[in-house]
Specification:
This protein is α/β, with parallel strands linked by helices. It is built from 14 helices and 14 strands. The chain has helices at about 1-15, 65-80, 85-100, 110-125, 150-155, 165-170, 180-190, 215-225, 245-250, 275-280, 300-340, 365-370, 375-385, 405-425, and strands at about 35, 40-45, 50, 105-110, 130-135, 175, 195-200, 230-235, 255-260, 270-275, 345-350, 350-355, 390, 400. The protein has a seven-stranded mixed β-sheet with strand order 4-10-9-8-7-5-6, sandwiched between helices. It binds pyridoxal-5'-phosphate. Pyridoxal-5'-phosphate (PLP) binds near residues 139 and 270.
């Protein structure tokens, strides 16, 4: 890809490492994207890829969904930024509250990281306590409180606590093992100063790791017993796993929820919502400060309203279709890897999956880290060469979208077959 190589050389002169988010980099250089549509993305040379990176899960309805483009085009005629309240913000907030029964009130923000930062501040403000408990491998954004033994790009790049992050902050973040509620209970017992527990209900930042039976129920029980707010970070799972997120899927009500990604289907928007008594602590009514110029901007709000309405309209079809595609695909992938005698694990649920090159089940941070990442990188490269774009790390997830067709998946399986053969050699 000479054009992308040239652009990368140029980019590095003015952009640190040539990318605006670390997960976008891969060796020797990432491809540069020119356009996207539906299930596809095209690089600067004109190569087309079937896209399973999918805006890291944001594009549940696919690239350039026509209903969303129409809603945004209509809004463009009315204005792009008002910094005053709008009727549309009420409509969107009501839609979010209707879909997520644990949410009485919601504040709109721009990114998932901003949402988790606010959720944690709210938990601290509400309890007047300091410490936060998070789970190994869960990724909640790139702010100090949560960038401790986090997944995603920080695990990929071997960063457990970031340089420049304050030890005074990270020491107030206690880290426990995912899928281990005894570890959580022990940690709470030993620490009287816990303000909140934050978790990805389905861990989608160490590859894909599913909560084991009763893990989430236990979290709810333990946090209730100790009067500690439970924060579900549904930035990935919100709207993707069901219209009401993982909490609807598992039948658990957290105290605070963060949303992002699929909320705006490719437009910049996120949200933090929860119980009225917690949310009312936000400024100006309360004393927990949170603010942003672009929060609730009319373009993103229009996109999010349309995304939720569209999802609610097609919910009886989309979730079962994507799950069916996923089950069929991962079964076939498993057969191919078995035929080739490649030690592997495939974790999947709803519209997400990941393959790990290991013979041990992947249930937490260390089992995911122990999988063979070199084999994964090899597979990634062959997939790319054969027109398939997945996120370039085993600590990410393969995302299906409503735009993927059975034909796309058949072609994808052929490419995976070639990629697995190369892994074996
Ligand atoms: C579960 C989860 N929470 C929070 C975030 C941070 O979101 P953003 O990148 O929009 O700040 C991410 C990003 O991948 C995520 O996966």
């Amino acid at each position: 890809m000479p054009r992308s190589r040239e652009l990368f050389t140029d980019a590095k002169k003015v952009i640190p490492s040539g990318v605006n988010s670390p997960v976008r980099f891969f060796t020797p250089y990432p491809f540069f994207t020119k356009k996207s549509d539906g299930a596809y993305i095209w690089d600067e040379e004109g190569n087309r890829y079937i896209d399973y990176c999918n805006g890291y899960g944001a594009l549940l309805l696919g690239h350039r969904r026509k209903e969303i483009l129409k809603a945004v085009s209509e809004q463009l005629k009315q204005g792009t930024l008002f910094c005053t309240p709008t009727r549309a913000e009420i409509e969107l907030s009501k839609l979010i509250c209707a879909n997520f029964t644990s949410i009485d009130k919601v504040r709109l923000v721009n990114t998932g990281g901003e949402a988790t930062m606010t959720a944690i501040r709210l938990a601290r403000g509400f309890t007047k306590k300091k410490k936060i408990i998070k789970f190994e491998g869960c990724y909640h954004g790139s702010h100090d409180s949560v960038l401790v033994k986090a997944g995603s790009g920080s695990a990929h790049n071997g960063i457990s606590v970031s340089d420049g992050g304050l030890e005074e902050v990270s020491k107030n973040t206690l880290v426990v093992q995912y899928n281990n509620s005894e570890d959580l209970e022990d940690t709470i017992r030993k620490n009287k100063d816990v303000a909140g527990v934050i978790v990805e209900p389905i861990l989608a930042n160490m590859g894909l790791i599913l909560p084991e039976k009763n893990f989430l129920q236990d979290l709810r029980k333990i946090t209730k017993q100790h009067d500690i707010p439970l924060i579900f970070d549904e930035v990935v799972t919100g709207f993707r796993v069901s219209p009401g997120g993982a909490q609807q899927h598992f039948g658990i009500k957290p105290d605070i929820t963060t949303l992002g990604k699929a909320l705006g289907n490719g437009f910049t928007i996120a949200a933090v919502g929860g119980k009225k008594e917690i949310m009312d602590m936000l400024s100006p009514g309360g004393k927990v400060y949170q603010a942003s110029t672009f929060a609730g901007n009319p373009i993103s709000v229009a996109a999010a309203i349309c995304s939720i309405k569209e999802l609610n309209k097609i919910k009886d079809k989309i979730y079962s279709k994507l799950e069916r595609y996923n089950v069929r695909f991962t079964r076939a992938l498993d057969d191919i890897a078995n035929d080739l005698n490649i030690p592997h694990q495939i974790n999947f649920t709803s519209s997400m999956f990941q393959i790990f090159f290991t013979n041990k089940p992947v249930t937490d941070y260390s089992s995911s880290k122990n999988a063979d990442s070199k084999k994964f990188q090899k597979m990634f490269r062959v997939l790319l060469k054969n027109g398939i774009f997945i996120a370039p790390s085993q600590f990410e997830v393969v995302f299906l979208s409503d735009a993927h067709t059975q034909r796309d998946l058949n072609k994808t399986l052929d490419s995976y077959s070639l990629a697995l053969k190369s892994v074996k050699n």
